[in-house]
Amino acid sequence: MDALKKRRLSLMKRLVTLIFIIVILWASSLGTEVSISSLMDGLPGMGSLFLEMLPPDWSYFSYVTEPMLETIRMAVIGTTYGAIVAIPFALLSSRNVVKWPVIYFPFRFVMNLIRTIPELLLAALFVPVLGIGDNAGIMALSVFSFGVIAKLAYESIEAIDNGPLEAMTAVGANKIQWIFYGVVPQVIASFVSYTLYCFEINVRAAAILGYVGAGGIGLYLNNTLKLFQYQRVSTIIIYTLIVVVIIDMISNKCREKLI
Amino acid sequence: MIEFKDVLKIYPNGTKGLNNVNIKINKGEFVVIVGLSGAGKSTMLRSINRLHEITSGEIIIDGKSITKARGKALLRCRRDIGMIFQNFNLVKRSTVLRNVLSGRVGYHSTIRTLLGLFPKEDINIALNALKRVNLEEKAYSRADELSGGQQQRVSIARALAQEAKFILADEPVASLDPLTTKQVMDDLKRINKDLGITTIVNLHFVDLARQYATRIVGVRAGEIVFDGPVEEATDDVFSSIYGRPVKQDEMLGAKV
Amino acid sequence: MNETIRKKQTIRRIKIWTSVVIVALIYIWAFSGMPKMEFKPSAVQAIKAIFSGLIHPDWDYFYDPEGEDLLRTLLETLCIAILGTFISSILCVPFAFWAARNMNKYRFISSSGKFVLSVIRVFPELILALLFIAAVGTGPFAGILALGFHSIGMLGKLFGESIEDMDFSSSEALKSCGANKIQTLWFAIVPQVMPSFVSFTLYRFELSVRAATILGIVGAGGIGAPLIFALQGHKWDRVGMILIGIIVMVTIIDYISSTIRKRIV
Ligand SMILES: Nc1ncnc2c1ncn2[C@@H]1O[C@H](COP(=O)(O)OP(=O)(O)OP(=O)(O)O)[C@@H](O)[C@H]1O
Ligand SMILES: [Mg+2]
């Protein structure tokens, strides 16, 4: 009897969830002018756009190499700044390092707040402050990386083995020594790995930041699109893809080595 | 000398960890603390270097009260007390040498230790400590490449490098097999004899306790119920500490 | 010390120093080409303006019975993320099976699937949105399609990996009871991968909500367009209002989604 009831209840639950999801999807599509017919009508247009992109303008490659390097440079610097600021934040947000909630809660709060803002939006905010150019992009990436790295790092600090910490207390280490000999060696590898992972994300992000005026190759993307130079657009896209894939590969190799 | 004066420890949840403990441990002794699980052995050991804070009473180490020590003075006191844990508590990703050197951070300025700039003689102290436990050739291996028994001997080396006057060992052999158990206990005993380091060990095994101790302390429900030289610790005494006859699995011999 | 220790140590040292030199070179290159970070007086003003906008947001913009307001555009943003995630959660399934090693006889098939997924992943949403705008015109639908397509890359990869980790003993048990292919799929495989599938989808949804807030920059719907207009028009109180709206929405979504995810696992 009881089993039957339970089964019925779980079936009910599933049904309700399903209906809930369908209602949400239906309401969402009402609010956003979804129309399959317009997609069908538009597909040929998209196809002709693709054709216009071909062949890529090969000569343009050398022309955009400098902005490409600038993009990578922005990612390197932004990730580094973000990682450096993330270190104290991650430590101060960890319950096993700082024992008082009065300290770790505010730090976590700031961290979570910053993590809600996507990088392109940060860039859009930094452009009026620092002007059009690399600096806005670097700052946007720094703040964004800070959010990503600090979050991941604090989670891995909270997961470390408590034993070495206790051992360091027992040998009479002061708090700073305690951190450097108990915490740091346990998390340094994952910290570097997260930083590399963030760098991968940042290279991709940096490539489009220029779209809002924050430097890098995105600026060229925006310009060529505005001028309908689609063959150049495809050059930029292909170039970005190649660079991203290569950087991902190198970074992945490094991260594997770290573990 | 370590002296407990009316030590009381009550955990936040109300459990009495130590109840009115008074005991004096003299220089050079090899004391083994025995008792049932939950009797308060770890609590007693950890109160000595204040990994646990006691509720009332006082603990005096070589004439100085560690209970009243604050800040630097507390760190100084701890520097003189080496501790060995059941789970070794080494940083697994660091090299053996770095783990041993971490015992020396109390001797140097913060900056110096952060940069890893230990003086040459410290390296020698660390290597000598490793030699004492026969692990010199593992100095540059990562700690997690070592077996359990080897890791425990590294943590003994850490306590040695610390140039501690006391060694506290909380069930140092509980996660080791009988053969490595013997090596680790032999190391502890030899160090106790050669260097005169006062050693206090928590043990589960009755026969091990008899074999290595010079003095046995029995604990039950946070109170000391037996304290005397090893010769006096007869089977009847152990039965009274445990509140029942000694079981076979409390003898290491049974495990072999 | 004996010879082998010393050798080991030297090799370690060499490795460490080469990496240090390489990293140092990268940094020298990166920082030498960096433009000077100079604070114009206008910068301070802009910062002040942004903060005062955050403190005194334009509440009139919050709800406006007729015309564009924050509530409506935020809802639109949310809808874009929901539908985009929904599309990708369905489209990613065949890709996941294509990329899963244990679902294909030959290694090169699954490898090619993985490659396709990583190509999809590197296409930024913004560029996809531009392409879809060319097809369906500006508006949220282009944003939905862009998110839906981009998310396939990540979902397909994660989902494919969880198929690879699957335990096949129960499917063998079912097969031995004489179940056909669809029955095995439904009774053995689906229940096993469902929790991780739902959890990945929710996680992707959190990311998609963030992504949807910027699609408007290129005209693909959502809160991005009003934000850019407010920024360009220096209407800082409105910028503040929109930022607060985004932060609150993302925080709530993250909270709900991560609570559900925790309950599933
Ligand atoms: N952090 C704590 N909070 C509350 N009670 C504790 C805490 N640590 C220990 N206790 C309690 O204090 C008593 C003594 O514990 P202790 O760890 O000292 O026992 P032990 O003799 O070392 O036992 P074992 O042989 O299992 O290690 C036990 O009843 C235990 O439940
Ligand atoms: Mg114990």
TrEMBL record, chain A:
It is a multi-pass membrane protein. One of its GO terms (molecular function) is ABC-type phosphonate transporter activity. Keywords: Cell membrane, Membrane, Transmembrane, Transmembrane helix, Transport. The chain crosses the membrane at residues 72-92, 113-132, 178-197, 203-221, 233-251. The keyword Amino-acid biosynthesis does not apply. SUPFAM superfamilies: MetI-like (SSF161098). It comes from the Bacteria. InterPro entries: MetI-like (IPR000515), MetI-like_sf (IPR035906), PhnE/PtxC (IPR005769). It holds the Pfam family BPD_transp_1. One of its GO terms (cellular component) is plasma membrane. Its main location: membrane. It is found in: Cell membrane. Residues 68-251 form the ABC transmembrane type-1 domain. Belongs to the binding-protein-dependent transport system permease family. This is Phosphonate ABC transporter, permease protein PhnE. It comes from Terrilactibacillus tamarindi.
Automatic annotation (TrEMBL), chain B:
Keywords: ATP-binding, Cell membrane, Membrane, Nucleotide-binding, Phosphonate transport, Translocase, Transport. CDD domains: ABC_PhnC_transporter (cd03256). One of its GO terms (molecular function) is ATP hydrolysis activity. Residues 2-246 form the ABC transporter domain. SMART domains: AAA. The keyword Translocase applies. InterPro entries: AAA+_ATPase (IPR003593), ABC_transporter-like_ATP-bd (IPR003439), ABC_transporter-like_CS (IPR017871), ABC_transpr_PhnC (IPR012693), MetN_ABC_transporter-like (IPR050086), P-loop_NTPase (IPR027417). One of its GO terms (cellular component) is membrane. It comes from the Bacteria. This is Phosphonate ABC transporter ATP-binding protein. It comes from Terrilactibacillus tamarindi. The lineage of its organism: Bacteria, Bacillati, Bacillota, Bacilli, Bacillales.
From TrEMBL, chain C:
One of its GO terms (cellular component) is cell envelope. It is a multi-pass membrane protein. It holds the Pfam family BPD_transp_1. One of its GO terms (molecular function) is ABC-type phosphonate transporter activity. PROSITE patterns: ABC_TM1. NCBIfam families: PhnE. This is Phosphonate ABC transporter, permease protein PhnE. The lineage of its organism: Bacteria, Bacillati, Bacillota, Bacilli, Bacillales. The gene is phnE.
